[in-house]
Amino acid sequence: MPVITMSSPKGGAGKTTSLAVLATQLAKTARVAIIDADKNHPIVTWSEQPGFPENIEVISDITEENFWDRLDDAARRVPFVLIDPEGTANVISSHAISAADLVVIPLQASQLDADQAQRAIRQVANQERSSRRKIATRILFTKTSTAIQTRTLKHLKAELAEAGVACFETQLVDREAFRAMFSFGGTLELLDSRQVSSPEKAVANARAFAAEVLQVLKGQERERTT
Ligand SMILES: Nc1ncnc2c1ncn2[C@@H]1O[C@H](COP(=O)(O)OP(=O)(O)O)[C@@H](O)[C@H]1O
Ligand SMILES: [Mg+2]
Question: Which of 4, 126, 130, 165 is the most exposed place for a label (fewest CB within 10 A)?
Fold first, then answer.
């Protein structure tokens, strides 16, 4: 029942998109619950369109008071729970971090966004102190260009490595298909090349991201049992 939380105090970092991409990949083989804690409910809107996977359930009636009940209930029933908090640091986003087996911090490759990531990392560190346990955290570079790495990206990676923060190898590339999922509904696999260009590249990117998430979770499982 791993709980995966997308976290970033910055709106537009790619939390909801990355979560949806991950959810649809995991849902190919397992049931997934998404806790949509954003007041605008972007995941609910997406789920109401055609093609939404039957394996994914969306829980949206989340308050500070019922958060832990809703989470425990979902975690009992399904193998993966994914949490999409609002883009501001609030009580629910703190709960979502302290509940997580893995926190994913989406980050665009600009120095301004990196400052926001530092805030997100500090938020995780605070939850680690209050829950007195280590919380696995990974930065996910999002909306990156398909071209060779920009100098800013290289610089940011070096900076993060120095601060001891791990990044996913996989980056979620800037692709029309990741936006189109929300406008057409359903999964990346349902998009065809008349709707967006190279949907298969987005699918390959999504698979690599999900595989890496599973690898991190497996590593944790091994650590727990040895
Ligand atoms: N990998 C990506 N490729 C293309 N567009 C993206 C990608 N990730 C996010 N976006 C777009 O960027 C905007 C913000 O993303 P979103 O996932 O809503 O961020 P957040 O949930 O952090 O506010 C949206 O318009 C979304 O479609
Ligand atoms: Mg969002």
Answer: 130
